[in-house]
Amino acid sequence: MSATTAAVKGALRSLTVEGFGLIERTATELGAGLNVFTGETGSGKSMVIDALGFAFGDRGGADIVRTGAARAAVFVELDVDDPTAAWLAENSFAGDDPDEGAPLVISREVTAQGRSSARINGRPATATQLRELGDIVLDIVGQHEHQQLLMPARHLALLDAFAGQRVVELRAECARAHGDLAAVDAALAELREQGARHERLLADARFAAREIAAAALVDGELERLHERRTMLANSAKIAQAIGNALERLDDADRGAVIGLGHAAKAMDNVASYGEKLAAAAQSIRDLQAGAQEVAASITELAEEGAADAGDLESVADRIALIEDLIKKYGGSAADVIAAGARFAEQAETLERRDEETARLEKARRAHSAALEDAAAKLTKERVAAAQTLQSRVQEELRELAIPGATFRCAVDARPAGIGAGGADRVEFFAALNPDEPERPIAKSASGGELSRLLLALKMAFAHVDPHPVVVLDEIDAGVGGAAARRVGSRIDHLAKGVQVLCVTHLAQIAVFADTHIALTKNVRKGKTFVEANRLTERAQIRTEIARMLAGDEQAAEALRHADALLRETRPAAKS
Question: pTM, whole model, 2 decimals?
């Protein structure tokens, strides 16, 4: 490893593959920086990358199981960085007491019968969860249709990340203004929806408020009216009973009040002869006072019961009114009173509808202006960032030996108008040969040219890409000679900041490796076996580079060429 290559938090530590395709079992430790996988055609280089993809949720059925094996299994150990730790905690894979520095262990297997299972830190996991974790850890750069760099839907987010903090702030400002505008539009839509039924709602509210207010209800009134109606309905009987009672209590000759008075006077004459006599005299006077109070109360009842013929009808009408209002507006007089207040408030609100509409329309103009202003600033920043990105990618393309290529980051108006993310749609275009028109990058190239275009984009976005591991799949397809050396140099530069796993058949790329893993295919007893060996000695690396150059690791010219390549790259790391 060179002194300039540092370990990346979140990098892969090891990969173990069993019963996968032609691989019986192989285990290899991975290092920081650039890890290259080399080997003869058919030796299983891409099979290792396929196994890694399988571990992170790619589809895999019984057909990947080695012939004669009971299962195919892949085990991956990796360091845990902050995004991975957050995902593990959110999905309950963090463990009860995780050791600091302990690796994350992922395992997945499929049996020869097609039954698959997976575990993350020893806990059962689904293929979807493996893919989610893979999206955090791995960035696969290659010729696959799922490559995110090729998806126009991702280009806006990529440009914004490239542009930096100012765009992040303006995008948040756009989102706030868009949310405010949406809220006002919703309120206006509700008012417009009410428009068709506004007059009816207002008339109903006014009528109900006036009807309840006119009744002048008092809480508890209905109960008192029912009692009054009962008394009026039985007024004759009540009057007769009161008359008889008054006659017994207050008759001037024989009433109880007069009789008790005489009795009290008689006892007063002897009260001085003893305490008990005095107490008896006092008790008689208390009874007389009570009888007087009862007589007075009965007299008041007689006055209340005295009514003309219309009183009963009036009380009955009032009761009917209150009960009708209760039936229409609430369960009690108090509920009706509360309903009256609500209808009055609703009527007032409806009467202010035009005023509210004007207020909302004024607010809408303000929010719309704020959104347009933020979107215009955001567009300006994006256009400037797009120019910088274009220059950066074209410079990378020149470094990768495609000097006549052009790359354009198009910032155009969104067909749907300004949204929460601004007014723009972004798409990447390229023409990788001078005589070709610009096309969307997914359609602009194939084979090695597409690989190099993707690598150029990866280099341009390297400082904003959160993935700790980059997998270069078929990145050297169609590349050779001086172009291969330049591709290797750019991959080496990329590996200064991330862990890179690269399958290659080019010596010009392999010589930049910090970790070199050679795959060999052998036939034993009629069966084919693929094995992975980490090359640690300079002589081993030299021999493999010579084989890649000439197909004969012992050819003198190939060995001299291998030495020259190794000296030209990072001699301190290879000596």
Answer: 0.66
